[in-house]
Write a structure and sequence with these properties.
Length: about 130
């Protein structure tokens, strides 16, 4: 079997080796670029899932606020503006600081003011003063 003289030529062999190296480098670059794109796609999909979850949470919050809008508006009107419904009686309780001195109610002595209610009743029914 006789080979064609071009296949035995050293110049042809050198060009073939250079072409193989060139295509191997191109293929390696393309593989690396493909891998980087796949990593970026994965990162973007995770980001999309995270943003979708945040969007769902915010949508639920908006739905809750819309459902409670009348209650929230009424609460703001009552608390901040002091408004009331027609026919409604409003009671307001002020915080008072407890005093350190206990004052006896009218008709009680100072000794009776420190006693418990049970002791006062006992004294009322069973002691003759």
């Amino acid at each position: 079997m006789k080979t064609h003289p071009i296949f035995t030529n050293k110049l042809f062999l050198a060009i073939g080796v250079i072409a193989l190296i060139f295509f191997a480098v191109l293929d390696a670059r393309q593989y690396r670029q493909h891998r980087n794109i796949a990593v970026e796609i994965n990162s973007l999909q995770q980001q999309q899932n995270s943003l979708q979850q945040q969007n769902n949470d915010l949508q639920n919050l908006v739905n809750n606020w819309q459902g409670d809008a009348s209650n929230n508006a009424e609460k703001v009107a009552r608390d901040q503006f002091g408004l009331q419904k027609p026919g409604e009686t409003v009671y307001s309780f002020e915080n008072q600081q407890p005093s350190s001195v206990v004052q006896a109610p009218a008709g009680e002595t100072a000794a009776q003011a420190g006693q418990s209610d049970i002791q006062k009743w006992w004294d009322y029914f069973f002691k003759n003063d």
